[in-house]
Amino acid sequence: MESVKAQKDAGADSATSAGSAQSAGRPEDARVLKQHYEILKELAECHAALADYDRARDCYTQAADLAPDEAAPHVGMGVVDIHSGRLDRAERSFRTALEIQSDYSEAYGGLAMIRQQKEDYPAAFDMYLKCLELDTDNLVALLGLFQTSCQMGTFSKVIFFLETYLDKHPGDTAVLFCLATLYAREDRLEDAREGLLNVTALDPANAEAAALLAEVRRGIEARPVGSGASKGLPARDGEDLST
Amino acid sequence: MIRNSDNLEHDGPLVSLIVCTYNRPEYLADALGSAVRQSWPNLQIIVLNDGGQDVADVVEPLKGARGRALNARGGAVEPLTLIQRQENRGYAASLNEALEHAEGKYVAYLGDDDIHYGDHIERLVTALEGPTDCQVAYSNLYRTMFRTMPDGSRLAVGKVLEIRRDFERFFMFYFNQALGGSLMHRRDLLEKTGPYNEKVKVLIDWDMARRLSFFSDFLHVDNITGEYCIPEEEVSDRISHRMRRDKNEFKAQYLMIRTSRPPKPWPKVQDLSIIIPAGHLRPQIVHMVMTVIDKTSWPFMVYLVLPERDIAALSIDEVSHIVKPVPVAPGAPPSAMVDAALRECEGEYVAIAPPGVRLNDMWVERPLHALMNSAGARQGYLLSASSGAWGALLRKGELAEARNRFPALEVRRCVEAAGIELRRITERDNPLVMDDFLTTVRALETDGDWHHAQAMYEKMPELCRNELWMKDRAALALFSKGTQDAEALELCREVNRRQPTADSLLLEAKLHRRMDRTESAVGLLEQAREILQWKA
Fold it and tell me: What SS3 state is found at B398?
């Protein structure tokens, strides 16, 4: 019924001249079309943060139904499923997210976490790398890559991503500490010392960093005068470098 | 209190609620469900089926849902009437036919796919029956975008509060600010406005609201009392689509609305006479007349001063209702042309607009707004013009008096001699200051300049009211700024205490999350979710 529709248009669109306040609201339509979705997603994230995973999953499911073109709810479901220990279902959710959006870094991050939990470290490493290639700012993936590297004993790629991350977040002491640890393992003791000095300056109460710094200093002092790089610090017995 | 012989009584006036429908029975059920649940007891619901599929099965079951209604004489009125017309005659004709059956002191409207909340009628009647001179009121409506689910039910994907602006007559002449579904007016006002214009096929409610505003101020009831609903697939700018389909037809309709002049007297509108001392007819003059018509939103008449023989050659049929040719002798000087027009024109304000006057948007509304708000006598405003041209906006009485006193002087000298001070408009002389403000502030938001955006939102209520709306926007700006969450939260809380919306609750929830108060955020999001539930 053209005329009835026109009645509605009158309120929204009747000013055809430029500069109308209400027609200026039209570009917001795209946002409003996602409003219910956004509320459900936000609610799901809150429930997840409160460890109420059933409710979180329920909200993510409703959000996904409302916006089938959005990958985020599937990633949310995957994360919730990981927390609930349902790794196979989580994997399906992350893969669904990637079908919707193939460059969704967090979905790769989720798949990496699953691989890591299943102790498939090479696959986890590759997934973390994919995630970081798409988003070098992803701290969770960065730390996951660090852990996986430690578990696999290969560090060169993770050093690159840690350095890239620190270019953007120079005050992140957790990442600084990880990087310093790796420098130490790679016998880059001066770099390690510099990093640890930064950590202890930013976080004087960080006993772990202080201990490692003392160890690095001893390593530097123990080098023969005029010698090149020594072998670096061995991993301490039982030490988990991934902390 | 109204009481009739059956001992029925009501405390308040009868309201006639008009629902015109065409082939949407599935939505009509929701609309009528919301109508019969109105808390206002004295209600006459008139459903007019505009030649669409039979809706008796939707309407009949609701007939017992309301008690009897009483008209002003105490006569019983059917609370729910169905008029089934076989012929499809369009919305305006349907409204007129339904109104013939209306007996209420007030009239309200409901779209056949829209809904009113239970207090819609009550809030509007209460406002109009209160201490006000207004004979028209409107409330806030959500614009609800919905998805039709496989079982035919509707799911709201978003609800945005859009019709929430305080009444401003300049704006009403420029743009509709009260949807039909939010409007209530005294029925007897239709005797002054005339019926719905059945030639108008688009912007039908603006046409009526605009005409109503000649006779009454509009009372803004700042409560959300309903929803007008749009399927999500139709959310894009439908009128623009229609314009692209038939731009000329749309322009003709738009022109018809913008230039309609209900019969005088107009208690709330002072007429504007635009004098074009053309001298002789040439193509540029016709173009100028059409530009004046296109660029002027305040009600006006054009007085086109031409020699008699040029008038005979003039072809302006489509705008003849607002262009009055005024004959003068060939070669008459400009002052004689103005004098000839002045004898004819009815407006309280006169714009002398010779060729050379710049006809931008709001070219005459800015000085008109300034002059209307200027308390002092003997003042006028210069119109922006190219060099060599001179135009001005004046009060007709003062100009006529000046011409009488100094008939030998050219108009400009005569105005000066009469002591009329001609001012230039400033940036502040702007009837649509709020619209310019919103345009500016949205550009700031787009640029990410939340600091200045927030400052502007805080300043705006001083200039153009709409306090709660501006607080809502300021809270968003502060949130986006990211450094003043406590202030943003305070504003959000105030907004949500007074008029929570899905958007404002979502914003407050985000602030709580940012402050690690996740449980508080959950409560707010549940409220937002509740708002998004289908309300019918």
Answer: helix
